[in-house]
């Protein structure tokens, strides 16, 4: 066959399947590369909406995780308005699906037509009498406004209630004012005759702490603050302090007062050595930054206070919580309004060195945001319960550590 004849048969050979045979010859394949899926964006749900559940306004969020994994979200339910003083109850909602849905609003504590506030919940997980854990809810009561208390016209008392069924029922209130406060008001109670003359008083707004490491494992610790004596300019009469129990709430003891003038609402977390780091609101406003101090034993002393230049703050509350990665490494997380101008830009930060530095941060919400509280869910997601949109509501946002750190 001539070359030209072969060319004339080429279309026929194609139709007969010559090229189809070629497709059966193995080819060298290249590995398929794909980019890892980005971390899922935060999910948000409304927990307390103003005007719902019988309360005109909700403020001052606090949240804890039960040993069962259930989330318990607390707030002040303000009956008539959003003011800090008046007919105020402590209320609770629970979630059994990691914050996706929430049960009805339930009342945890009230003080008739007066104020009960500053919820500080914490689980005692080491009391052998309660192998499933016992929930403490510490709080303060008041009969007049903070300004009047600070002026010496009344006092704030300190109480706790407990629950062994995760907030469904509560014990009778226990008054621990003489153990953890120093008021000079014997006309109110003959036992309230302390020369220190503490006036304004507040537990940490947000969860309290149980130590899990070191010589004081099992200690319950509550960050707090007070004012002492007559009001002073630039809130210099305010000081932060804490109180603790080593016997499952039978007795309570004061930590030393932190001497920095203007130290107000404080929050605490455990350090990697079993000590305590305190993160304090600077009420004086001489620096629009958080104040930090730590102690290996809160019964003894606090290290000198430092102004945290990497933690700007508009004079507002903040929250800290411990987070342990799958690798076993321990971190501290901190949430606050990341602004020196106003309450906005809710941000969560990460410290890998017990609060010496906070190099990782992620903004949760750019708009109006104020008080917040952090929790670690059963599935290791991070949750933050916070006041949003000019105190219009309290929402719960959850996200992964991978999202936070990348």
Automatic annotation (TrEMBL):
It catalyses: Hydrolysis of alpha-(2->3)-, alpha-(2->6)-, alpha-(2->8)- glycosidic linkages of terminal sialic acid residues in oligosaccharides, glycoproteins, glycolipids, colominic acid and synthetic substrates. Coiled coil: none annotated. Residues 1-20 form the signal peptide. InterPro entries: Sialidase, Sialidase_fam, Sialidase_sf. One of its GO terms (molecular function) is hydrolase activity. Its EC number is 3.2.1.18. Keywords: Hydrolase, Plasmid, Signal. Belongs to the glycosyl hydrolase 33 family. This is exo-alpha-sialidase.
